[in-house]
Amino acid sequence: MRIRAGLVAAAAVALALASAEASELPIFDAHIHFSHDAAEQIPLKDAVAILRKAGLKGALVSSSNDEGTQKLYEAAPDIVVPELRPYRSRGEIGTWVRDATVIDYLEVRLKRYKYVAIGEFHLYGADADLPVPRRMVELAKQYDLMLHAHSDADAVERLFAQWPQARVLWAHAGFDRPEKVREMLRRHRNLWCDLAFRTDHANGGKVDAEWRKAFEEFPERFMVGTDTFTPERWYFIGEHADWSREWLKDLPPALAERIAWKNGEAVIRSAFARKR
Ligand SMILES: [Zn+2]
Fold first, then answer.
1. How far is CA 50 from each of CA 47, 55, 79, rounded to the nearest angstrom?
2. What is this structure's pTM?
3. Most buried in the list 65, 107, 178, 195, measured by CB within 10 Å?
4. What strand order describes the sheet that includes 191-194?
């Protein structure tokens, strides 16, 4: 009798754990890098385990150079959606806009592999109109790719001026104020934002009032992201997912689900699926 009661209790605990896992909010992380230094330091199977343990349903992944992205995509094609970064190494963040060899590199990779986007790239103000970024935008147009721009509002405007039908994922929502972000979203229907590497939208599990207005006005335009710009930040992916789940609880469930993963699936995964 006692044994049976114990078994029933154990089964109940197992069931509770399973349902807790099942009800855990999935996360689409729209800002992951697996660059050369991360790929050297973190074994591929460990990297995949980090993504799975974090409960990621999807991840928009890019890397300097592209090898890390391709390896990770091969190892976890159910999670990873690849995008092509215009950098061959970390040091090119500030120099690529004037380096014509970047275009050759992009052309070679675009012919060889499938991507959903070009990015994340760093591009500010009038630099967006330099020949190399312009040519990159033309390639994105030719291959029907999104642009993942770590940019100020000025550069985003210039990208849309070059290609009015562009689909732009604005990295870190430009590190701009929520009021300005709303203004940009009103002006451009093909603009989405990742909230990577910013914490001003939520504190202690509560959503900031101005950001709440932005999320409510544009429920379909925001995604969360970790931004693993250094190898160490890989160990923050699970923590970031949990932190996101915490503040998302402060929003209506349907809105929380959109920001957590549905927008990533609808905008990023579906665009990639159309290419295959
Ligand atoms: Zn980044």
1. 5, 9, 12
2. 0.92
3. 195
4. 27-33, 56-62, 80-84, 117-123, 146-151, 168-170, 191-194, 222-223
Sign of CA dihedral 111, 114, 116, 120: negative
Å from CA of 228 to ligand 1 middle: 7
Give 120 Cα–ligand 1 centroid separation in angstroms.
Answer: 6
Query: Whose structure tokens read 């101005």?
Result: 210
Listed in sequence order, the residues at least 6 apart from 45 whose beta carbon sits closer than 8 Å to its beta carbon are 75
End-to-end alpha carbon distance in the chain: 58
Distance 83 CA to ligand 1 centre (A): 12
Q: pLDDT band at residue 91, thresholds of 50, 70 and 90?
A: confident
Pairing of strands 56-62, 146-151: unpaired
d(CA 269, CA 22): 22
The answer to whether residues 247 and 201 touch, using CB atoms and an 8 Å cutoff, is yes
